[in-house]
């Protein structure tokens, strides 16, 4: 079969989105401004440094380049501390079996994540071997909504973008999939996610065959 599924990591496969939020909130607390879950939607799917810039905009702050690098690395320290005990219990419902079902049907599987921690997280979850290709934040120069991460994923799978279906929980990621010329299933709420071909609450709310149908339409 010449079809591929490209999965975002944080918030699609594993429940780490809450830890990214908590780590950024700690930075906002230190800088003494309010950072809400609603604000956090703007950071989802976005690279670490771009997330920091959005956070500073929300707080109405300017920081020097050195200070930005320090804050981003401090956030990552908090984040790594929060995920140090991550294991397969943190996988989102059905994410592992959904990927296995898709593989059994001959669908190629890639990861398309903005995270520089992706390889470490996949290893902790014990699912690294399920992926035919991995593109993460260490391999791209342009953050979502730029399509680079998904275009490279399709290339590694030797598939045309139109034969790839992306699973994304962030608006920036859905925009990246669309910019790559790919169909996209939004994971979350249709009140928040726009322009996906379908939005479901999680991978436990859709079958592999239903997902494949979206790719065929
Ligand atoms: C994305 C997350 O998957 O990765 C963002 O949705 C995060 O919240 C981004 O900022 C970069 O992650 P990391 O692990 O490289 O800081
Ligand atoms: Mg995500």
Characterize the structure shown:
Helix 6 links the parallel strand 2 and strand 3 (133-135). Strands 3-2-1-4-5-6 form a six-stranded parallel β-sheet, with helices on both faces. It has helices at residues 17-31, 37-40, 48-58, 65-82, 95-104, 118-125, 148-156, 171-179, 208-216, and strands spanning 4-7, 108-112, 133-135, 164-168, 183-187, 198-200. It has 217 residues and is an alpha/beta fold. Magnesium ion binds next to loops.
C-alpha Rg (nearest Å)? 17 Å
Tell how many strands the DSSP assignment holds. 6
What level of helicity do the residues show?
40-55%
Biggest sheet details: 6 strands, parallel
Main sheet strand line-up? 3-2-1-4-5-6
Which small compounds were modeled alongside the protein?
Answer: 6-O-phosphono-beta-D-glucopyranose, magnesium ion
**Structure class:** alpha/beta
Q: Name the beta content range.
A: 5-15%
Q: Treating each run of at least 4 consecutive H or I residues as one helix, how many helices?
A: 9
For the residues shown, what is the average pLDDT? Answer: 97
Return residue spans where pLDDT drops below 50 for at least 5 consecutive residues.
Answer: none
What string, H for helix and E for strand, traces the elements in order? Answer: EHHHHHEHEHEHEEH
Distance between the termini: 16 Å
Overall, the morphology is globular
């Amino acid at each position: 079969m010449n079809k591929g599924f490209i999965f975002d990591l944080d918030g699609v496969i594993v429940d780490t989105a809450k830890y990214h939020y908590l780590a950024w909130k700690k930075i906002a607390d230190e800088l003494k401004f309010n950072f809400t879950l609603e604000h956090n939607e703007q950071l989802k799917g976005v690279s670490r440094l771009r997330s920091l810039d959005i956070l500073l905009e929300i707080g109405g702050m300017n920081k020097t380049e050195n200070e930005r690098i320090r804050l981003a690395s401090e956030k990552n320290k908090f984040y790594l501390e929060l995920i140090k005990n991550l294991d397969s219990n943190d996988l989102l419902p059905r994410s592992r079996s959904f990927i296995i079902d898709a593989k059994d049907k001959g669908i190629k599987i890639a990861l398309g994540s903005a995270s520089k921690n992706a390889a470490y997280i996949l290893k902790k979850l014990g699912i690294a071997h399920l992926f035919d290709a991995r593109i993460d934040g260490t391999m791209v120069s342009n953050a979502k909504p730029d399509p680079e991460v998904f275009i490279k994923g399709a290339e590694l799978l030797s598939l045309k973008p139109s034969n790839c279906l992306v699973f994304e929980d962030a608006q920036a990621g859905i925009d990246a999939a669309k910019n790559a010329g790919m169909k996209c299933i939004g994971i979350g709420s249709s009140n928040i996610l726009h322009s996906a071909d379908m939005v479901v609450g999680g991978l436990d709310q859709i079958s592999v065959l239903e997902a494949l149908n979206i790719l065929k339409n």
